[in-house]
Amino acid sequence: ALKNGKIKRFKSDFIVSTIPLIPMLGMLKPIPPKNIIKSSKELDFLSFIILYIVVDEREILPSSYLYFVGRPYNRISEINKFSPKMCPPDENMIGIEISCKEEDDVWKYSKEQLFEYCIKYLEKDKIIKRDEVKKIFVLKARYAYPIFFKDYGKNLKPIQDYIDSIPNFKVIGRVGEYEYIDIDQCIAKSFNLVDNITPKLKGKQ
Fold first, then answer.
1. What is the pLDDT of residues 139-177, one digit of tens each?
2. pLDDT at 99
3. What was the pLDDT predicted at 4?
4. Long-range contacts of 199-202, Cβ-Cβ distance < 8 Å, separation of 24 or more
């Protein structure tokens, strides 16, 4: 771990990693066998951009989120429909979701470029108008969606077996396990993992 710019080392009884699977393998010491590294290079993730646009409080969408085709984005969410506490009382916000690869031009866009990339379609579809936008900001996730290539299973299996061979170490989560699961499934799997780990840790006390 880093503390004040310096590496601090510490011991643990058990490690649970939610780090994306591919870069996590490169962090292990000793380095995994060559066949494991080779298999990991055959796997990949889609990247993910969310452009948030803030407007005055009003209803924007007929539901919490809508999916789109033929647009730069694949989904738009209205944040206040998830909870009225998500925004200040006088504001609402939409999250515009764009899937891409790291090498795509859109991944390198500034928030202003992303706004221009999307606004003409938002206006065309009568979602928001340019002149009502109060502010914008962007979040980017390099590792977001595991890509299931035709032969991904044969490359993933040896990696899973290798991880299972490491004592007191588990990976979890969509990017940690290279598994497309929803948040409720992530939470359930986390609870199950804790239930399995707890007896082992109690035995060391």
1. 999 999 999 999 899 999 999 999 999 999 999 999 999
2. 96
3. 77
4. 200/13, 200/14, 200/168, 201/13, 201/14
CA-wise closest residue to 134 among 53, 57, 52, 50:
53
Specify the pLDDT at position 8: 80
DSSP string, the chain: -EETTEE-----S-EEE-S-HHHHHHH-SSPPPHHHHHHHTT--EEEEEEEEEEEESS--SSSSEEE-SSSS-SEEEEGGGT-TTSS-TTEEEEEEEEEE-TTSGGGG--HHHHHHHHHHHHHHTTS--GGG--EEEEEEEEEEEE---TTHHHHHHHHHHHHHTSTTEEE-SHHHHT----HHHHHHHHHHHHHHHHHHHHTT-
Burial status of residue 156 (CB atoms within 10 A of its CB: 0-12, 13-18, 19 or more): buried
Token output for 157: 């299996």
**Cβ-contact 54, 136 below 8 angstroms:** yes
Given this model, what pLDDT does residue 7 score?
82
Report, as ranges of residue numbers, the positions in the chain whose pLDDT lies below 50.
none
